[in-house]
Amino acid sequence: MARRIGVFVCHCGVNIAGVVDVERVAEEIKKHPNVVFATTYQYMCSDPGQNLIRQKIEEENLDAVVIAACSPAMHEETFRNVCKDYFNPYRCEMANIREQCSWVHDGKEATEKAIKIVKATVEKLKENEDLLPILVPVEKRCLVIGGGIAGIQAALDIADAGYEVILVEKEPSIGGRMAQLSETFPTLDCSQCILTPKMVALSRHPKVKLYAYSEILDISGYVGNFTVKILKKPRYVDEDKCTVCGDCEKVCPVIVPNEFEMGRKPRKAIYIPFPQAVPSTYTLDREACLGLAPLTCAQCKDACEAGAIDYDMQPKIVEEKVGAIIVATGYNLYDKNKLVEYGYGEDDDIITSLEFERMLSASGPTQGKIIKPSTGEVPKKIVFIQCAGSRDRQHMPYCSSICCMYTAKHALLYKHHVPDGEAYVFYIDIRATGKGYEEFIARVMEEERINYIRGKVAKIYREGNKLIVCGVDTLTGRRIEIKADLVVLAMAIVGKEETKEIAKLLKVAIDEGGFLKESHPKLKPVEALSRGIYFAGCCQSPKDIPSAVAQASAAASKVLALFAKDRLEKDPLVAVIDEEHCSGCGVCISVCPYGAMTWQNGKAKCIEALCEGCGTCAAACPSNNIEMRNFKDEQIEKMVEVVI
Amino acid sequence: MEGKKMKNVKKKIAMYWGAGCGGCDVSLLGIHEKLLDLLDEIEIVFWPCAMDIKYEDLEKMEDKSIDIAFYNGAIRTEENEEIAKLLRKKAKLMVAYGSCAIEGCVIGLANLYNKKEIFEAVYLKNETTKEKILPSRDLPEFLPYLKTLDQVVKVDAFIPGCPPPKPVLEEALDALLQGKTKFGKEVALCEECPRKDTKPEKIEISKFYRWHEKEDNGECFLAQGIICMGPATRAGCKGECISANIPCTGCMGALPRVRDQGAAMLSAIASLLDVEDEKEDEVIDSIKDIIGTFYKYSTAKLLPRGGMKDES
Fold first, then answer.
1. Fold of A333-494
2. Given this chain, do its domains A138-225+317-330+496-570 and A333-494 carry the same CATH topology?
3. What's the angle, vertex CA A420, arms to CA A414 and CA A426, rounded to 5?
4. Which listed residue, A62, B18, B24, B114, has the most CB atoms within 10 A of its CB?
5. Contacting residues of B for A623, CB less than 8 Å apart
6. Chain B residues whose beta carbon lies within 8 Å of the beta carbon of residue A580
């Protein structure tokens, strides 16, 4: 128990001292029992500030310190590291007189409150126990969920560093959305051309175990020690035997819409989503197939010279142990049927941006020709509508981030395909914040003579062969009516339904757009609240390819940092259950947001490696049988006593 | 040697019925044959409910001549208080018997109202009361608020329950006769709940039901959305009510580390809610009679001066 406590009050420039009389805080706290020293300093976190603490610990023979400064989320680690050389780091506590005082109060009361906060922290500190970090072993393998560009990049980075990666992709091939794109802004290089080398690299990497056409069934465990259950859906085609000759496809009598082509092109029941698919193999769609029975139809099997087709293939469940998980499940477009103002998107000639991408692609449904789907004619007038579903309180309130850029690209490519055509773009603002983006927009606007109209489209309706697009040019205030052949909606980007399932398994929160919530919006943008789980790409927020790739590498570097040690050190401020007096009511197990509470012999047990010390269980336990280390009831009571 | 000698001397026992329903007196008989065994060891010297004895007889007894005095019921009248003090004087061990004596129980809910309001409700505004007469003469004074036994005298041991269930009582009597004042379980009812095995992995409550609104499916009440005080209530009764498809109402009182049983359960219930933020108030408001549900037994203990605003 601390007997000689020193208090160090930080000015934080004017952040604290501009509001709180820091000198008086130091004077007052000196009178408090067991406080033997108190002083103030300009910036306690600076090197001289830290040295002051060191010097006074020695001179005054302090056995514990309180730093009255900012939030412990900022500098607790800084100051505990200072104290570590002298005593147990848990003898160092921070009193938050900035975020919880000077930033939110003014006047005399602010100083009074600061004094109380410091006194309460001193009282807590007195009862602190000396603690040692909890050590957790690490399984040095990483699971990547999703084989889009983000997942591929993260997997390659980790595998290149020498660690094994398990990549799980739900679709028959990796590649994700990027494989569907035609050209990429602002450089207009072919999306597939820059993506496929990475796909190949991944498939050939000795450290990568690829589970394509597979789904995550269950994830349990905690940082360093996750157990993942993966369902390998049957392809009914042996990946190793398939030579991708295409004979099976030719004879297959079943025709269904191709998902990869956004349903704008047919495929057979046995298919390969696109020529460069990885793994390079055909897949037999069980739903579409006439019955997987040779009696009804066995044309593909008969046609396959390699003998790769096996109707008796069964789903397989495999279990993998991993130490870290990167979620890179990507995005979907907002449902265009929800857009009342654009005719629920039911008209054939109102298409989404991704459908337009496929139209532009040389391997797409029209072999790169831009057409009006209803007639097959070349559209002479095309209208692009940005923020379709984004920045709209009726739909998704946020900005989908990439639509300004790809719409400019779409308009430019249209002009290249149809030089005598007219292109209109309806926009709210142009957001072009990436490298070379503004220049790209300027080029499109000026050189390509695209009509940019600042305003929203209120209504689209059909009149004969044309779509009438009604809007307002908000810069001139004039109403505008355009007789268009084709309308392209830059649909809002939303999180995937499947991501929600994964989030549930991982106990990660999801925001209103369906995106995964990061631990800190600025300082921990690729990390989940629970340790060992990271995000990459559009499952976290809408972003362009460079950002998705950068985030993937960031997530990979976090995983590598995790794998750099054999054992993880974990803050020992966890929940402690008095098992003898636990009735097994299950309340703590039900409320723990980290899944750290589990059943053991009819009683609750805390898995310390998973516990983040939030205290929800301690507050909820109706037997008051759970205590947080260094936040015991007696400590809280003493804190309250000095405050009131 | 000493032990053997002690065995021959029968322990002198007293039992008093304060402000209560009488269930506690009956519960002592509810231990059945055990009572006959007990009579070999004890001598009942004062039990107004079961024998003909007057207060003056009690007054005449020597101080500390009674080995164990059981006091059931709360302190509602001057008479209750007087006898509590007298018994304390005459007894070596003073035992609060049952929930009324310990924490006020159902009748303690009267502490939410002042004496005037109580009298009006009972003697004047009650529909079945034909002659509206307020009691006045020759009756012990009705105290301004209800007290628990330990608010009046020092209490050595507590036998919880409304009334104390058989297994609790048997253990308590055995312990007390051996001179032990600490007994009973220090774990919540869930531990011995007959429905323990039906508890789901996770309890989530999206709607509250009262127990008569649901057909008995034999599952954990909380998992069904029926408020059961079991998780916040001391075990010992073996869940007799639960076996009869009635959720625990908490008569055994709070766990040793809990000061406020109602708050402990409310906190747990609030944590188990699985509704959108905007709907939380609506769902919480659907709980009928918050005090009667969560503070059925402990109101008087937690409101020692009752709902006294206009009297002192």
1. FAD/NAD(P)-binding domain (3.50.50)
2. yes
3. 50
4. B24
5. 187-188, 231-232, 255, 257-258, 264
6. 187
Q: Would you call A601 an interface residue with chain B, using a CB distance cutoff of 8 Å?
A: no
Q: Check A585 against B188: CB less than 8 A apart.
A: yes
- Smallest Cβ distance to A587: which of B189, B200, B268? B268
> Which residues in A lie closer than 8 A to residue B203 (C-beta atoms)?
586-587, 590
- What are the domain boundaries of chain A? 5-126, 138-225+317-330+496-570, 247-303, 333-494, 571-628
Give pLDDT, residue B8: 62
> pLDDT tens digit string along A24-60?
999 999 999 999 999 999 999 999 999 999 999 999 9
Q: Is B271 on the interface with A (CB under 8 A)?
A: yes
Tell if the CB–CB gap between A622 and B203 is shorter than 8 Å. no
Does the CB of A107 have a partner CB in chain B at under 8 Å? no
**CATH dotted code for A571-628:** 3.30.70.20
Q: How far is B303 from chain A (nearest CA, A)?
A: 20
CA distance to partner chain A, nearest, from residue B258 (Å): 6
| Average pLDDT in chain B | 91
Q: Is B231 in Cβ contact with A583 (below 8 Å)?
A: yes
- For chain B, list the domains and their CATH numbers: 2-177 (3.40.50.700), 189-302 (no CATH)
- The 3 state secondary structure assigned to chain B is CHHHHHHHCCEEEEEEECECCCHHHHHHHCCCHHHHHHHHHEEEEECCCCCCCCHHHHHHCCCCCEEEEEEECEEEEHHHHHHHHHHHHHEEEEEEECHHHHHCCHHHHHHHCCHHHHHHHHHHCCCCCCCCCCCCCCCCCEEEEEECHHHCCCCCEEECCCCCCHHHHHHHHHHHHCCCCCCCCCCEHHHHCCCHHHCCCCCCECCCECHHHCCCCCCCHHHHCECCCHHHCECCCCCHHHHCCCCCCCCCCCCCCCCCHHHHHHHHHHHHECCCHHHHHHHHHCCCCHHHHHCCCCHHHHCCCCCCCCCC
pLDDT for residue B7:
54
- At B34-75, the pLDDT tens digits run 888 888 899 999 999 989 999 999 999 999 999 999 999 999
A145 - beta bridge partners? A168, A327
Does the CB of B131 have a partner CB in chain A at under 8 Å? no
Question: At A251, which amino acid appears?
Answer: V
- Higher-pLDDT residue of A346 and B120 is B120
A520 pLDDT more than 80? yes
Residues in A touching B266 (Cβ below 8 Å): none
- Inter-chain touch A622–B267, beta carbons under 8 Å: yes
CATH superfamily of this structure's domain A138-225+317-330+496-570: FAD/NAD(P)-binding domain (3.50.50.60)
pLDDT for B308 beyond 80: no
pLDDT in tens, A407-450: 999 999 999 999 999 999 999 999 999 999 999 999 999 888 89
Percent of chain A's residues with pLDDT above 90: 88
| Confidence (pLDDT) at B35 | 86
Closest residue, chain A, to B232 (C-alpha)? A622
Q: What letter does residue A241 receive in the DSSP assignment?
A: T
Q: Tell me, what's the pLDDT at B3?
A: 46
Across residues B285-312, what is the average pLDDT?
A: 82
Query: What is the interface pTM, i.e. ipTM, of the complex?
Result: 0.89
B205 to chain A, any CB pair closer than 8 A? The answer is no
- Indicate the CATH number for domain A5-126: 3.40.50
Substitution target from A585, A625, A640 for chain B, most B beta carbons within 10 A: A585
Question: Which of B 232-261 lie inside 8 A of A, CB atoms?
Answer: 232, 235, 255, 257-258
Computed over its alpha carbons, how large is the radius of gyration of chain B?
21
- Indicate whether B310 pLDDT > 50: no
Number of A to B CB contacts under 8 A, please give it: 80
Q: Is A599 on the interface with B (CB under 8 A)?
A: yes
Confidence of residue B131 (pLDDT cuts 50, 70, 90): confident
